[in-house]
Structures are given as structure tokens and as C-alpha cells.
Amino acid sequence: MAMMDALSESAEMMIKNINELASNGERVRTSDLSAKTELKPASVTEMIQRLGEIGLVDYEPYHGVHLTKQGQHVANVIDHRFNMLKRFLTEILGVEKEEAAEVACRMEHILTKDVEKKLSSFLGIDYDDESDLFCHKVNIEAEEEPEFVSLINFKEGKTGKVRLVLEKSELTETLSGAGLSPGRNIIVKKSDGKTYDIETEESTLSLDSDLAAKIILQN
């Protein structure tokens, strides 16, 4: 995939910026995020609220925001990818540190799982210990069953409510017409890691893993 499953590049950058601005566990002010990202305060608030809906941040109006345990994991994955790419660019390709940092910041969002694994192997890094994609790890590491979870981590036979569809294309209208849209209930009938058969109030659908990773359900 071209991005970390279930998260857009802008969402990843917002998590990264929150992590960088946080200190001593203090909440980060939206005004500071607006200044750092050069986004309008309203745009920052809207994105933070969306990240809060899927359990990655805890946001309180007028009191700022901080990363949840799941959000911190995502930030750690992004940071790991950045450091690994920067190391490859400087140590192997001989790129100057400043340029390497700029390029690595752009590349960290499009690094596929296969390339990340091969790059880890090339640099002598234990891939399984160091990193994994968000959708494969963040939700199953929680000590308790998370309230929000990607469809690929949803158990067979369970009914869940769709909270977010992280897909912006004509496909969104097709899914909505089939009953797969925020606020609607679905049942996961069968999943094998590659395809996910679900039942909505209107129809039955079979989704591939790439699309399933972008469907956020509420337990």
C-alpha cells in the first residue's frame, strides 16, 4: 500500500507533530499545532476530532490534546521509519544530513510493508521487534478490547457500527449505497486475512484487505 493502512499522510503528520510538541505528558495546544503545521485552527481541530473518533488522541476543547496509547504507537512507528530512512540515505547513499531528513520525512508516509521489511534486513534491524503497520498491531496491543478497531481486526460473527470510512473516491458512494457508511451496523461473516465478507442491512459485500483496513468500526 502507498501509506500506512487506515491513516492518510496528513493524519500521520498531525500525530507526528503532536508527539514532537508534547513534553512531560502535557497536553498540546491547538494554537501551537496550527503554528507548526501552518494550518488554520479550524482545520487542526477538525483533524484532531477525527483522530479522536478512532481512538488515537484525547482532545478536550480549550484544554488541548495528547496521544492515547494507540496514538503513541503510531507516532513511534512513524519515528522508526524516519530514522531508518535517514540512516539509509546518509550512511549508504552519502546524502547530507539536512537533505536526508527532508527526504526521509516525505518517504516515511509511502513506505510499504514489503519495502520496510527489506530495508530493515539490509540495515541489520530486526523488523519484527522494531516496527509493524498500524492496522496490524496498534489495536491488538491494547490491554483491553479497544472501542474502535479496523475491520481487519474485527472478529468473525461480531456486529459493529461503522464510525469512519477512510476512503475518498467514487467508491465511497458505492459503499454507502450498499449500507456501508458511518452510523450503520454490519456483521463480519467471514475473514481470512485477504478478503472480508460482511453483511449490511442492505446487502452482502466482500472487501479486500486494503479497503477493509480503512473501515473503522465501533465494538
List the helices and strands and how they pair.
Elements: H1 9-21, H2 30-37, H3 41-53, E1 57-60, E2 64-67, H4 69-92, H5 97-107, H6 113-123, H7 127-130, H8 134-137, E3 148-150, E4 159-165, H9 170-177, E5 185-191, E6 195-199, E7 204-208, H10 209-212, E8 215-218
Antiparallel strand pairs: 1-2, 3-8, 4-5, 4-8, 5-6, 6-7
Helix pairs in contact: 1-2, 1-4, 2-3, 4-5, 4-6
Descriptive report:
The structure is a single chain. The protein is of the alpha+beta class and 219 residues long. It folds into 2 domains: 1-145, Orthogonal Bundle (Arc Repressor Mutant, subunit A), CATH 1.10.10.10; 148-218, Ferrous iron transport protein A (FeoA) (SH3 type barrels, Roll), CATH 2.30.30.90. It is built from 10 helices and 8 strands. The strands form 2 sheets. A 6-stranded antiparallel sheet has the order 3-8-4-5-6-7. Strands 1-2 form a two-stranded antiparallel ribbon. A hairpin with a 4-residue loop joins strand 6 (195-199) and strand 7 (204-208). It is globular, with a radius of gyration of 18 Å.
What key phrases describe this protein's structure?
10 helices; globular; alpha+beta; SH3 type barrels; disordered N terminus; Arc Repressor Mutant, subunit A; 219 residues
| CATH architecture heading of the largest domain | Orthogonal Bundle
Return Rg in Å. Answer: 18 Å
**What is the number of independent domains?**
2
For the record, give the distance between the C-alpha atoms at the N and C termini, rounded to a whole number: 26 Å
Number of helices: 10
Offer a concise description of the structure.
The chain has 219 residues and is an alpha+beta fold.
